[in-house]
Design a protein that fits this description.
The chain has helices at about 1-15, 105; strands at about 25-40, 50-65, 75-80, 85-90, 95-100, 115-120, 125-135, 140, 145-150. By secondary structure, the chain is mainly beta. It has a 6-stranded antiparallel beta sheet, covered by helices on one side. It comes from Ohtaekwangia kribbensis.
Amino acid sequence: MKPLCILWLVLSSFAEDIPFKSKDEFEVNLDFKFRTRVKETSEVYTSTASNTSGPLPYLTISMKVLKLAPGETKIRIINSKGQLLYTRKAVEGTVVNLDMGYTDDIKGRVTEHEYTLVFISQDKKPLSRIVIHFQEDGSYFINDEKRGKV
């Protein structure tokens, strides 16, 4: 846990210094599907029909790396809580899938509302970043550029 906290502090303190990755070097696609949410309940004797609501919009994001800058060897994905989700080798054509969850949960801050993809060098120096952020009104931004609303 301590290494993650230290990583988060280091990345958050330098996050303003890490430049955004150029928008022609990556592609982001939002995929909406309708899923039925099962309500969590503590009651043992409830019928299945009463535990579901209607289909709700569910969001997954796929981000494809089109071009890597010289020296970018790995991608680190960090959520809005500063937790490192995973590190992956960066190659052109890499697709990173983010399971965002139900859109109402994103807006209500029940699930994660921001992800930062940091491209790092072999010596673990951050070189560029992509920030995907959803506001409470449903507007979403990629690298501080408004792209739409969910």
